[in-house]
Amino acid sequence: MASIHDVAKEAGVSVATVSKVINDYPDVSEKTRKKVNSAIELLKYQPNVVARGLVKRRSWTVGVLLTVPFTNPFVAELLEGIKTALENSGYDLVRLSTRFDDPTYSFIKHCRSRNVDGVVVFGEGRENTSIQELVAAEIPTMFIDTDLFGKRAGYITTDNVNGVAMAVKHLYELGHRKIAYISGTLGPAVANLRLDGYKEGLRLCGIPYATIYLEVCDYSFDGGAKAARRLLALREQPTGIICASDMSAFGAIHEIEKHGFSVPEDISVVGFDNTYYAEVFKPSLTTVNQNIYTIGIRAIEYLIAMIENPSYTPPVVTEPSNLIVRQTTAPVNEMYSEAPAQP
User: Rounded to two decimals, what is the model's pTM?
Assistant: First the structure.
């Protein structure tokens, strides 16, 4: 196995110069840098990561805090984006476990014990004091869908308001006027913003907001099914239902069909996420696309920029959303919309 001395000899430079190239010191000419990198490639030299970390005061690891189940398709696509961004970055990924229910537990101490250079957080609300401490400690952090930021913390999210408003407009243009909304648990910024989008969409379409058409669940399949069951029990059932996630939309569709109705012939359904399953589900799901994979990539790119440049201003980024029309939405069925609710 080649050593740093072998690289120095091959490149015709000192060991110190090789070390400077490996650790990205700026005081090395481009010509010398190319010679050293060519020697590293020729000899297949692998720098000692531990030694490199001591020089740069880094561990070359990024921690990820995910409190949403890995079985959730959103998480799967988000992690794929994170993995892609890390592949050629020189950083490794560490999953950070938590014990937020333990009053003696310190997430900050946990991060420091794992010696991570930065953290990506998804699935925790801003009210979590451990997360707030993360911002105060100035550990480089990128939040996904959590509206927290600070001197060393930024966040990235989707245009949630416009996304749901587009879904309302789509159903309105198909003739729907009784449009219900199955929200995620209210409180976190994302759920609140999507509800704002629903209300704004109704306002723009001239439809009064009615609380009877609002149901709240936990973004899950079962949550969507239970919410749909309550909507189907209304005297005036909705002809269109917008869900705050694809998973809750799948649950809603299952419940609608279990009650003997057809999607989209009787009731149109729109999801939010555009996960992989939205396209393969039968019928394929009309949904708001929020570029999950891209969000994962961007979160890592911004985080590494923070880690490597202490003066880098943490970004607050809103990715655009767009509506993907598939098979779960159709023009309103006038016969269904005028029929009394089934028991």
Answer: 0.80
